[in-house]
User: Fold this.
Amino acid sequence: MSCGDPHETECGEVLDHLYEFLDNEMPEGDCVKLRVHFEECSPCLKQYGLEQAIKALIKRSCGCDDTPTDLRSKVLARIDSIRAGQRSGEPVVVAVETTVEVHAESARPAPRPGGAAGQEPAHPGAPVEAGAQAE
Assistant:
């Protein structure tokens, strides 16, 4: 993304550090460089505004949920690992592992034998695909 004009700080660098800026995790000197860039570059300013709005929406929607301590520890450890790799010049590989817990009060009922319209499921006992409607 770029407005096509030359800038002291490149658009890519600004966007790479956008969340650090939004989260107030940057040294003040770097914040000043980004603020100057936003004043000069409307595409980056637009992206900044969009990301700021998304963060505000997430905070309003999920702000009351407590983060599990073990998840918080894992995320912070991974961030430290990535930052250490960036400082050493090593290529950074990010792997994402997702675990989904379903609590009894929010789970859908198990599909009944016979499937939709009286048809037998292809594999009895097979898990229902995500997004499939249970009867």
Summary: Helices lie at 11-16, 18-22, 28-40, 42-62, 69-88.
